[in-house]
Amino acid sequence: xxxxxxxxxxxxxxxxxxxxxxxxxxxxxxxxxxxxxxxxxxxxxxxxxxxxxxxxxxxxxxxxxxxxxxxxxxxxxxxxxxxxxxxxxxxxxxxxxxxxxxxxxxxxxxxxxxxxxxxxxxxxxxxxxxxxxxxxxxxxxxxxxxxxxxxxxxxxxxxxxxxxxxxxxxxxxxxxxxxxxxxxxxxxxxxxxxxxxxxxxxxxxxxxxxxxxxxxxxxxxxxxxxxxxxxxxxxxxxxxxxxxxxxxxxxxxxxxxxxxxxxxxxxxxxxxxxxxxxxxxxxxxxxxxxxxxxxxxxxxxxxxxxxxxxxxxxxxxxxxxxxxxxxxxxxxxxxxxxxxxxxxxxxxxxxxxxxxxxxxxxxxxxxxxxxxxxxxxxxxxxxxxxxxxxxxxxxxxxxxxxxxxxxxxxxxxxxxxxxxxxxxxxxxxxxxxxxxxxxxxxxxxxxxxxxxxxxxxxxxxxxxxxxxxxxxxxxxxxxxxxxxxxx
Length: 487
Ligand code: PHE
What we know:
Layout: H1 2-12, E1 15-16, H2 19-26, H3 30-42, E2 46-56, H4 60-68, H5 71-78, E3 85-86, H6 87-92, H7 96-108, E4 112-113, E5 117-120, H8 128-137, E6 153-163, H9 180-185, H10 212-226, E7 230-231, E8 238-240, H11 241-244, H12 276-287, H13 302-306, E9 308-310, H14 315-332, E10 337-346, E11 358-369, H15 373-386, E12 392-399, E13 402-412, E14 417-427, H16 429-435, E15 441-449, H17 451-458, H18 473-478
Helix pairs in contact: 4-8, 5-7, 12-16
The structure holds phenylalanine.
């Protein structure tokens, strides 16, 4: 209706000078007219130009005076025409703000005599303030008013409209679909079809959305698979201290095994079973060494190894898998393996913007004969290059289960500095030999958090905005695809 009103008007008139007045004349809502103008403009039926008008609107205070009169007139009228009224009594008739303004203005205008008694000095007064307010209310702009408050000023937007290059008195309807009926009746020859708009955005899909961590996880899994790695089964958050620490040659006094760093389980507090002969070899290597090692020289306690905990790293899974592989080697001979995992780990950490008590670890390992530190560096360079990080540096580090060990750094262009992105090393003979591997079998391994690269990639600077109960669902809905490894 709005659309037809505009087109018909322009058939006989040069211009619609003001969409606001036009809307009022047609009795159509201005917003509807504006929508029609925009749509007609899009199809070049009309040309339009913006009009902006600033209008004054009354505040609540202004509205009140427009209805009830200005405070000074209200006050004047409350003073008797003859005689006087006590000031106290007069005050009771008004609320304090009105009384104050009323007294001051009526005094200034010399309308009343103010003392303990108040009396009129003139017979009659004119309410100019009220008249002015009423004019403003009716939209008769008073340009001489100065008002300091922005809240009195309202901007109105409208258009002036003329015929456009494709003007026609009636809007042509474009067909959006070619139907069976169109074809059968021959209509298709006459029909005008709507052009495709390849720039239009599709409606947002109302489906589930993957969390950025899941997107990242999928991409990294793909990279591992492309590199020929198999995924390790990580479906156990509860682990025994044995697989999490002892099997990894981590001494029982190590500070990480303290309840300040590790969550221990109350029930069940201990593990049900461990491979006894292997436990015996682990005990030996801790206490007195072997395989060329001196060991740690302390009394190894089974109770400590039995304690259940929430795994502090996925290397607990690596130790289980390697033990299995070593058993398989005894029966069927050695097969080289490339394993990876990406799953949750737990640490008793103070939570802050970069730390959570639970996070995800990415872990990779290669088990083969004759591997060297050179292989580890080469594999890391290949792996991280696929993650988009080609500029790596390695720094000597210490882990109880690897020797040598290296921290991995990458130059972050955005931050303009080297950031630590992972930890790595070659598993020690004290870990591999008790498992039963042949002497020349080496394992190179590395680990990193999933959160770190995800935060860098998605530009999130507080880990609590990425993971946990404070995460904004919109972040999940709107986060872009993870393009890592797709180049
Ligand atoms: N487990 C180590 C960590 O939690 C990572 C790592 C894995 C280091 C494998 C070396 C070898 O940080």
